[in-house]
What we know:
Helices cover 48% and strands 16% of the residues. The chain is of the alpha/beta class. Among the domains are: 9-37 and 452-545, Helicase, Ruva Protein, domain 3 (Orthogonal Bundle); 131-289, no CATH class; 551-794, Ribosomal Protein S5, domain 2 (2-Layer Sandwich), CATH 3.30.230. A seven-stranded mixed sheet has the order 23-24-22-21-26-29-30, sandwiched between helices. The protein has a five-stranded parallel sheet with strand order 8-13-16-1-17. β10 (342-344) and β11 form a beta hairpin. α22 (615-632) packs across α23 (659-671).
Amino acid sequence: MNNKKELSYKDLKMVCNRDMFHFETTQDLESVNDGIGQERGIKALQFGLQVDVKGYNIYIEGPSGVGKTMYTKNYLDSIAPKKKVPNDWCYIYNFQNPNEPIAVSLPAGQGKEFKESMDGFIQEVKKDIKKTFNADDFEKEKALIKQEFEAQREVVMQKLTQDAFKEGFQVKSAQNGIYMMPIVEGKVIEEEEFEKLEESVKQHYEEKSTVVQQQIMEAIGQIKQIEREADKKVSEWQSNIALLTVNAHINFIKAKYKRNKKINKFLTDVKQDVLKNVSYFLEEDKQAQNNQPQQGPMAKKQDPCLNYRVNLFIDNSETQGAPVIMDSNYSFNNLFGKLEYENYYGSFKTDFTMLKPGLLQKANGGYIIFQAKDLLANGICYEELKRVLRVKEVSIDNSIEQRTSMTLISLKPEPIPIDLKVILIGSSNIYHTLLSMDSDFRRLFKIKVEFEETAPITEENVNKLAQFVHSFCEQEELPQLDKSAMASIVEYASRIAGDNNKISTRFTELAQVVGEAGTWAKLAKAKVVTSDFVKKALEERVERIKKYDEKYLEMIKENTLLINTTGSLVGEINGLTVMTIGDYTFGKPAKITVNTYTGKQGVVNIEREVDLSGSTHSKGVYILSGYLGELFAQDIPLCLTASICFEQLYNGVDGDSASSTELYGLLSSLSEIPIKQSIAVTGSVNQKGQIQPIGGVNEKIEGYFQICKMRGLDGSHGVMIPVQNVENLQLNDDVVEAVKNNLFHIYAVSTIDEGIEVLTGVPAGKKDKDGKFPAGTVNYLAYEKLKKYAKICEK
């Protein structure tokens, strides 16, 4: 390492210190339940969960894969058992408004008891009524009432017979009514004989028949009145007998729930309804004895016992603490409950027992976790959730998700009060969009929890990461990792983090590597995953998806893409870019050429002129004019036209990471000092000539290294990067080994002056006290060229 700007191979990669691990293999560890490096987020979450004020629901933001959902669920599961168990909720029949079932709240476990009590009540009442009304005393009393009815009916019929006889008619009672026949000469005649009578005689009888018909109608009315009185007497007598039975059962249940007004009112209504329907129970018993159950579409409708049942809507009898609900089905009915229907003899029927709870009702008294992206995909659900949080009650409304042209009978059950904490998990973009566009969101989600995507490399954090690996391997039934493998995972986590002092907390991405390494170990029949398997997993991942990278290398190899990696050229330099295709990111060089000549257009960005330049790249090019003006145009006008071009780039360019590279090309063109083509460059620059950090530094270096390796490393090749990016280096072993063997070089610079000297071998040159550059330096030669241009412009 001859150049003071050159980095040692030790600077190129964070090597994990295995002494930090408190295990031999991750099998020795316990599962992790808390976040890694998420102290601020955890503190905010804990506070938000303690605030029992309306509107203090929680939004958790952070990149995907950092464990937001896992940690939140684990934490809630740890605190929920210590919370109060929420009440049960039941729906009961509303005898006054049948379409509006009544919601009843009971302490946990009592809802189930109430349902069982009413189920038992139905069975006991049926049995007792059957037993009571099949007794001899009942049959005797019923027979007496019947005899009394028959006697009264006989009196009416006798009087009718006498009155009709006086008018010359005989009356007879039949199953379908009372009919009359004329008596002629003491003989009852049929209709055929009646037609043979003389007209005067027939007319006489027809006139008399009107009187008799009136008498018959009066008699029928009297008989029906007698029947009604008899039925009433039987019913009252049945009710009085049934009341003794029903009262005992009802009073027993009432005693259990004497403080619940809704249940007491319901039980009173049930008692009255049973007394009205004693005859139904008796008829049901007869049909059962004759093996003739009720049939047809009216059978279920007639059953009054349905109205005595209890819909145990929310059963917390076995719940330990507060519920924690998380689901992936965000349909309206699944969130807010539904009313089911059944096809009954060709028609859709429903009743209050078919009310089913949604996730909101199940989470009542506890916590519910939503993925913001999935919830917002169904706008109706998001709007209804906000309404629920505003009014603090949830209603069941089937109309929103009915997908049928038929008009279905629906119910309007009483809403259930809601007291729960809603946790939305999503990205930062979603949070800021909701905050700026939805006024309700600001009022309803007042706690923001931020999850970090990186954490410092500390002994505590790397061991927590190892615990996560232990949990994952145990869950997926994979071999556990030894220290060497875990060290490789930490190093990979540092690369993802883009900082050799930190590790990534994107557990999803890390889990993929652990899973693949474990699979390679299983295929090799190894009992433990070592670093070789992790390396194998990483290599194979790249191998599977590097098609475009290989095609690019192939074009360079065939000189389809012109990239020089040897020699020195004026106004030509290799810049570095990154390309992302799907889930694969790789670096590639781009030849940048610069031409300078007399003119007043300044620096011309060819990509911008043909609409291939993004705004950030265009800004970087404008910065070059500012740098040149301050450095060279203090005593002469800047009479320059310079064209800059990314050669063979046709799909656009953006970002300012090549701005320093472009400036080096400008200085080379002006000074006519050639630039080493073996060194590629990345880094942005400001107007003062300071080099600024860029992204994708590892991919850029490795991409250029591949090309140099393909053509043959001779010790001259390397990459120049901003000094600030040194802490982002986590290069692969091939690059590190090449640097160690002095076959490849990494230079870190902080200014344009430092960089141009590395690229040309010629000092940049600083102005002396008289404002002059040292002769022979890059800046001196560039200034001389610009003086020449200025004189030409004066002509």
